[in-house]
Amino acid sequence: MSPRLFLHIMSVEARTKMSYRVDFWINAVVGFLASFGLMVFVWSAVFRESGEVRIGGYDLPTMLFYFVAVILYGKLVRGPQLQGAVSSDIYEGGLNRYLVFPTSYFLFKYAQNLGSLLPALMQLFLFGIWFLFLLDLPPDVELSPLTVLMGLVSVAAANLLYFVLLFPLQCAAFWADNVWSLSVALRFVSGLLGGFLLPLSVFPEWSREILVWLPFRFLYDFPVNVSLGKIGVLEWLAGLGLTLAWAAVIGLVGRAVWKRGELQYSGIGI
Amino acid sequence: MIEVDRLSKTFHVYRKPPGLLGSLKSLVKRERVEKRAVKDVSFRIGEGEIVGLLGANGAGKTTLTKMLAGIIHPTAGDADVLGYRPWERDDRFRRQIALVMGQKAQLWWDLPAADSFLLLKEIYRIPDATYRENLAYLTSVLGIEKELTIQLRRLSLGERMKMELIATLLHGPRVVYLDEPTIGLDLTAQRAIRNFILAYREENRPAMLLTSHYMEDIQRLCKRILILRDGELVYDGSLARVVERYATHKVVTVHLRRDGKDCPTPQTVGDLGEIVSLDPDTLKLRVPRGEVADAAAALLSRCSVADLLIEEADVGDIIESILTARGESVS
Predict the structure, then answer these.
(1) Which of A115, A117, A150, A177 could cross-link with A10 by S-S, CB 3.0 to 4.6 Å?
(2) Does the pLDDT at position A82 exceed 70?
(3) Interface probe with A: pick from B104, B117, B131, B169, most Cβ of A within 10 Å
(4) Could you name the CATH architecture of B248-312?
(5) Where in chain B are the domains?
């Protein structure tokens, strides 16, 4: 696929997503405030009831900063559009259209996925800047233009990783009629093991040793901690390399699943 | 351009018994059934030919079309389209073919057609000048220039189908698969689409495979037809030959003059053929092909005739009789 076509697909998808104004504002305001409000109540209660000043290396203000970042980054990592797009294409026969196009279906969907991130990207800047003014920067947080830039690059890599994790799961639609539950399972598992629901440093030591060997930590925990200045440049480069290596390996698995699955494809749909 | 050699496709489907108990059972174990959708089909289509693909629902028409467009893999057999095996999906092959599926929108629902066309321009790498020229030609022939900037979902069914056709033909394909291109359209839109397909064929000489349940489409567009029955190709030849071979009767319609002569009755004309309808103004008879001349002469002498019309039987009826004739060979 040419870079020009890739950018054109991104642009079309971004325009389509931005045309839903009501959805944009509901998602931006209600979605963010509900998620953040929940985290404030839960973690304030946890700190108050436990009597601890620090949990997993975070004090309460830093913990809240973590969740501001993780909620805003989470939308960029998961992307709004691919949740069921591939499996729907297979199940409903929409894949027919793409298979006739002289271009890669995987890259087409990836470009659409990136284009669909524009509303989430705008929300990131909208709420991110607002929160920087609203909250005092905790002493533990070393936010700088460099850490924000490193964090955003990590988010882009995390988005790619999530995309390739989801792709083979959705290809299960070649064999099973409805694989929506697999997408939900990935969202939950990656949220728990990746640091979306709580920072990984809160986990017991033995489980953290296991999590090191899994790709999920690069989805949320790593980009957020990079942005909060908790990870140095060299460590960041190593983490970024590992994220891309995981994406490459899982991408190869996805390619193999796709190759086998398309032999099963009936193109019938509903 | 299109060469198909003993192409077959078998699907595996699961049976689920009805009712709650059936649903519970199928959670544990399902019955897998083989369904042979296409069986050993062979044919060739040359440049500039529009070939009609006919068959009852479930006969394998769409499955065959999807294999030739490279969407699904065959179980056995081979095909060569423009020198490529379709299901290998070589980009050079895909740049030269097009598929219109009347029952499934190919364009982007939330975008104006103009935006979709620009995306297709990039997908097919159509040079700017060619794109402008093709778009101007296609929109003017279909009379749809003003609707280009309206969101697709706000257009009528006929307008959407015209947009689908434009999207399909923008890149100047050499092979076009048309699967029910006029389905659901009113008569005016159907006629416009048929005229357009003919004009496009004259101008560009692509090979076209047309699937349609409307006999009018087939009669207007195709000289040659393929008939599929239960996945098997039972006829490959001219439409005219089917009519000659299978139309055993002609229909003779007599418009009667009311001038005092006795009106015909089943007793006076029943020996000439099967009476389809009879009223004081019109008599319609179904007459064996070899006896039409004698029957017409007899009618002129026995009745006061204002006008007399001899017609072939309806092509749709003929095809339908072939499609529903189980196990009989077609030559």
Answers:
(1) A115
(2) no
(3) B104
(4) 2-Layer Sandwich (3.30)
(5) 2-243, 248-312
